[in-house]
Every structure is written in structure tokens, then in C-alpha cells.
Amino acid sequence: MVDLAMIAVVLMWSSTFTLFKIAWHDIDPVAFTSIRFAAMVVLSLALLFLSRDRVAIRRQDLGLIVASGLTGYFLYQMGFVLGLDRTTAVASGVLIATHPIWSVVFLWLLGSDRPRGVEVAGVLIGFLGVAVFLHVWQAVGHATVGDLLSLGAAAAFGAYGVITRPLARRYPSRELMASSLAVGGTLVALVGVPAMVRQDWTAVGWPAWLILIYAVVGPVYIAYALWNWAIARRGVPRTVVFGFLTPVVGGALAVGVLGEHVGVAEVLGTILVVAGLVVTRFGGTRSTESAEPVPVEDPEAATA
User: Among 58, 95, 267, 285, which residue has the fewest nearby CB atoms (within 10 Å)?
Assistant: First the structure.
């Protein structure tokens, strides 16, 4: 049952790259994201109101809450959406999937958690994969604006993981998500107001509306529940390994559904990125990680 649950999560996350591309034929990407996050903010606050585990945010944590919302929702989501709109679903899926590598880099730079040698090796392998994927030997001009925005989104989400880690230890997941969404999600919704006004909503077909509803509920709340349930049953290391399937499955869906083309360099780059992620995450796993499951607040990383 745990395996089936995690396969369902991987399918939900990886499907966003292709489904969003389809929905954006009818809806402007920024307008789509604005409506999506306005609904998510309302939903998260409603669920928090109905819960019994509400905890007041301490004043000294307000700065971290703001930084969490800005990096994990506003910067990440805008970079993801604008990047995906300007590059292929395959490229976006692979580049977004580098966010754990960025987390290790930020931890290293901050000196808060000295990485082990195997973690450094994973970072180098992952960045080599990105370099191969972007054909850096053909100069920077080969990389599209969408590729760079996707990579920036991954960096923002990597920073979000570092910022949110101490908060996740002090607050329930639902409380933390509602607070950070109130900051970042509200900004995303406000930035998209002009796009929503310009959007011709009469031209939006029912498939796009269904995808929008799915984007609010599926990859976030249903996937979060299954993800956290699996971690509680099996622990972190044996659960999060499924997350590394997301760029692979997402790329396969993009090729099969959208007809996107991948070459030898893209395949090799994908393999190296996934290898770097696996080495970074599991080669340097601390013994304390497997001893106590930790809450995972935002896995859309991954994706969307």
C-alpha cells in the first residue's frame, strides 16, 4: 500500500509539467497560477480554522515565515511557471529537480551543516548533469530564458528547504503551510491580477478548468497527505527516493503526450542529475534521519 501511495504521488507531481502546458493553451500561465494560489490560500486557511492543532506564530519566527513564503511560493512558483512557459516540460522537470542540490549548497555556504564528502560529490555530479543538459559547451546562448528561470526556481526552493527546516520542528505542518502561503501565495495571486483581467475566460474550455481544479487539490493536499502517511509508516530515506522518479516520469509523459524531443545530451544530463540527487540525499544520510520521521511541508517540487 505504501508503494502504491508513493507511485500515485509521483504521478501527480510529474503530471503537472504536461497538464499545465495543456491548460495554458486556454489560460494565461500567470492568470492560471494566480487563481490557483488564491484558492490554495483560502483552502489552507479554512483547513487551519477547522483543525484543533493551531499554534500561535512566535514573533521571533516572523522573519523566517516571510522568507519561507517568498522563496517557497512566490519566487519558486513564478520562476517555475514562467520557466515552464518558455522551455520544454522535459527541461523544466529536470532543472526543477535540482532543488535538493541547491539546499546542500546553501547549507554549506551558511556553515550550518557541513556536508560530507559524498554529499559534495553528489552536488558535483548534479551540476555536471545540468551542464550537459544545457549544452554548456555550445556557449551560454544555447540555454533558453525558460531554462534559466527553471534553474532559478530550483535554487529558490532549495533555499526554502533550508529556511523552513527549523520552523517545521516548532510548528504543525498545517499551521506552517497556512502561514507561508498567506505570504507567498497572496503575492502570487496579486501579481497575477492584471493577467486575470486580460484573460478571456469565455474561451477557456472544460479541460483547462478541470486541470486548474486538479492543480489546487491533487498535487498539493492529496499528495501531501499520502507523502506524510508514507513517511510515518516507512521513514524518510525509503520514502523520498520515490521523489527522484518525478523528473524521469515527467519527461516520459512530456515525450508521450506533448511529443517533445530529447536527444542524447538530454538523456545523459537527466541520468547525471538523478544520480547526483540520489548520491546527495542517500550517500550522506545521517543516522538521525531514519530514526525519527520529519514533516515534509511542500513537495511540489517540485514540480509545481
Answer: 58
